[in-house]
Amino acid sequence: MRLSDGMAVVTGAGGGLGRALALELAARGQRVVALGRAPEGIAETAAMDPSGRITPLIADVADPQALRAAFAQIIQIAPVTLLINNAAIYPRRDFLDETPESFAQTMAINLGGTVASTRLALDSMVETGFGRILNVSTFADLWPLPASSAYAVSKGAGRILTRALVADLADRFPGIVLTDWMPGMLATRMGVPHGLDPAQAARWGAALALWYDPTLNGAVFEQDREILPPRGLKGRIKDALLLRRRTTRVIPA
Fold it and tell me: By C-alpha distance, which of 209, 188, 213 is closest to 198?
């Protein structure tokens, strides 16, 4: 089976990086569902696609019932072979300005949306034994910025989720490959004015998403390069004795 045999789903595709990822995947020949909660945003994304490969679909990732209905529509067309969990919010609130409800809402979108989308996409992937999941991530959990507690906690938990999914699925379903990708600071509404053009980041993200290689399971990439996991002293000694050199992979252009 190939990724192009099924449908790619990009969450949060009504603007910013999600829109750029959907357009880049379509330009590379992939059928794409641009999923988002704002009808005008995802409609605009689809209208920007000259290939006609993008299908807009309205759903809020924080609403499990709406998301379940959306995925039911998708699999009537084709099985989901690729999921990019991109939807997120960054409210920029000092913790003293948070309420339990506002904090929980950020968690519901950034973490809950990833959980729900992944679980529903896995229905198709487990059935075929094949799939690719790319989680748009960040180092915000390691170095939280001021006024970012909910964002940092939710995105950090997302990175733990990737590792937990690999632990649960890798042995039984080696054909389902999960990877974390950190695009960096972008010139988007959630990013910074002087950040990276989301279209450039999307070229890396789409290429990584379409790079189907089981050895990418559990890998972490920042922009176009792999971030290798730290090695303990015993591991470093073993590498030296075996003349083994770890190589950082670069996303194919």
Answer: 188
The predicted model gives 20-39 an average pLDDT of: 97
Question: Which pair of tokens denotes residue 231?
Answer: 């090695």
Distance CA 195, CA 138 (A): 15
> Tell me, what amino acid is at 130?
F
Which residues lie below 8 Å from residue 128, measured CB to CB, with a gap of 6+?
1, 6, 79, 81, 175
6 and 55 Cβ atoms separated by less than 8 Å: no
Structure tokens at 202: 């999307």
Beta strands in 205-249 (DSSP E): 219-222, 225-226
Catalytic center residues: 151
Q: State the DSSP H helix or E strand holding residue 207, giving kind and residue range, or none if neither.
A: helix 198-209
Read off the pLDDT of residues 72-99 as tens digits, 9 standing for 90 and up: 999 999 999 999 999 999 999 999 999 9
Torsion over CA: 244, 248, 250, 251 (sign) = positive
Reduced to 3 states (helix: H, G, I; strand: E, B; else coil), residue 124 is helix
Q: How far apart are CA 207 and CA 253, in angstroms?
A: 7
Sheet holding 176-182, edge to edge: 54-58, 32-36, 7-11, 80-85, 131-136, 176-182, 219-222, 225-226
User: What whole-number distance in Å separates Cα of residue 215 and Cα of residue 174?
Assistant: 9
131 vs 31: CA distance, rounded Å: 14
Class of residue 199 by CB neighbours under 10 A (exposed 0-12, middle 13-18, buried 19+): middle
Q: Which tokens sit at 245?
A: 């050199």
Please, what sign has the CA dihedral across residues 175, 181, 69, 27? negative
pTM of the model: 0.93
Q: What residue type is assigned to position 97 of the chain? A: D
CA atoms within 13 A on the CB side of 20: 17
